[in-house]
Amino acid sequence: MCFAYKTLVFPLLLFCIAVHQQQPFDSTLEKPQFPGASAEFVDHLEFIQPNVISGIPVYRVMDRQGNIINPSQDPQLSKETVLNFYQKMTLLNTMDRILYESQRQGRISFYMTNYGEEGTHIGSAAALDPNDLVFGQYREAGVLMYRGFPLDLFMAQCYANADDLGKGRQMPVHYGCKDLNFVTISSPLATQIPQAAGAAYAVKRENINRVVICYFGEGAASEGDAHAGFNFSATLECPLIFFCRNNGYAISTPTNEQYRGDGIAARGPGYGMLSIRVDGNDVFAVYNATKEARRRAVAENQPFLIEAMTYRIGHHSTSDDSSAYRSVDEVNYWDKQDHPISRLRHYMTARGWWSEDDERSWRKQSRKTVMEAFEKAERRLKPNPELLFTDVYNEMTPNISKQKEALWRHLQVYKEHYPLDLYDK
């Protein structure tokens, strides 16, 4: 048995040794085969630090005095186009001041200004095609204004009168316009983000030269809907531009209490999105970034994330007093030293396109135009009460018909308590 054992086992050992010598194995050369990520193996324990790389840079074209820094980045826009930028930005500013005071006087119930963020509105709107679909939050009035939404309809919406496209059903500043491809704004934060991803997927399937742009603030980016929208758009490869206005505050919460990472643009790579951070107070930088993102989104069917760094000079809304959580000096710095309107004005003045006389004349004219629309809106009647029951179904259901009849019976019995003469017949 010993002989037999040696005869069988010894050659087997020699074979194993030979195989081992002929096929050496180095574990350091192993490559991960996991389907979820591309990476390398390491043999030392190390957690990835959040600040392992320097912050994402901020792209800009103009300095604070309106000088072009790199001539190759100058969009070379015509005088007429630049003047239109400036006039839309200042007209928006004038409308804000009048409607803000209107709320303070009790004429309307609520308002939100756009002070300090005008460059993000106009720069991005100008880079889009009119056919592109816009999902706004509630501080994108300038985008709608640039597309041609008239002052009369801005006022009608805030006053909820008979001219309001929403028929008086929405809070002020919740604009919408089907003809201008601007989806009606809703109050809940970030609901528009996954909606935009779905719309962009539909646009992709249509295979047309069109993109969807979705605006939101850095506070809304903390909502779960934001992450769902980012992931859907990236995995479905949708032509979508996510445009984040990082204005420093989510209502009363500063950014250092909202997140610990490098802003919002840093989240893009984690979802597989191309991302950029721009100076939101530089209308040309916003224009260039949005224009290039749009071009590539259409050509490549993929989403882009733009983080526009800016500052909310006004209160969050008429329900907010920002002096409770930030200093007057801080606000004054951004208002006086780094404002998108003054920066563009420096640019125009240096080229001889704008003067003090032009400024005085335009300010007077724009205020007169806004006041005319304001006074007209105040004189208009409220929408007919019957509109409470329309537009939900194609044909009115029996239970809604009963509610409508009950309302009119009530109004007839107690009509002395209702100012029906203020409502459209």
From TrEMBL:
A GO biological process held by the record: branched-chain amino acid catabolic process
Entry EC no(s): 1.2.4.4
Dehydrogenase E1 component domain mapped to chain residues: 87-386
Reaction catalyzed: N(6)-[(R)-lipoyl]-L-lysyl-[protein] + 3-methyl-2-oxobutanoate + H(+) = N(6)-[(R)-S(8)-2-methylpropanoyldihydrolipoyl]-L-lysyl-[protein] + CO2
Protein's UniProt keywords contain Cytoplasm: no
Signal peptide start and end residues: 1-22
Ranges in coiled-coil conformation: none
Cofactor: thiamine diphosphate
Gene Ontology CC entries for this record: mitochondrial matrix
Keywords, alphabetical: Metal-binding, Mitochondrion, Oxidoreductase, Potassium, Signal, Thiamine pyrophosphate, Transit peptide
Subcellular location per the Swiss-Prot or TrEMBL entry: Mitochondrion matrix
Gene Ontology MF, one: branched-chain 2-oxo acid dehydrogenase activity
Function summary: The branched-chain alpha-keto dehydrogenase complex catalyzes the overall conversion of alpha-keto acids to acyl-CoA and CO(2). It contains multiple copies of three enzymatic components: branched-chain alpha-keto acid decarboxylase (E1), lipoamide acyltransferase (E2) and lipoamide dehydrogenase (E3).
Subunit structure: Heterotetramer of 2 alpha/BCKDHA and 2 beta chains/BCKDHB that forms the branched-chain alpha-keto acid decarboxylase (E1) component of the BCKD complex. The branched-chain alpha-ketoacid dehydrogenase is a large complex composed of three major building blocks E1, E2 and E3. It is organized around E2, a 24-meric cubic core composed of DBT, to which are associated 6 to 12 copies of E1, and approximately 6 copies of the dehydrogenase E3, a DLD dimer. Interacts with PPM1K.
Entry's family note: Belongs to the BCKDHA family.
The protein, known as: 2-oxoisovalerate dehydrogenase subunit alpha
Originating species: Anabas testudineus (Climbing perch)
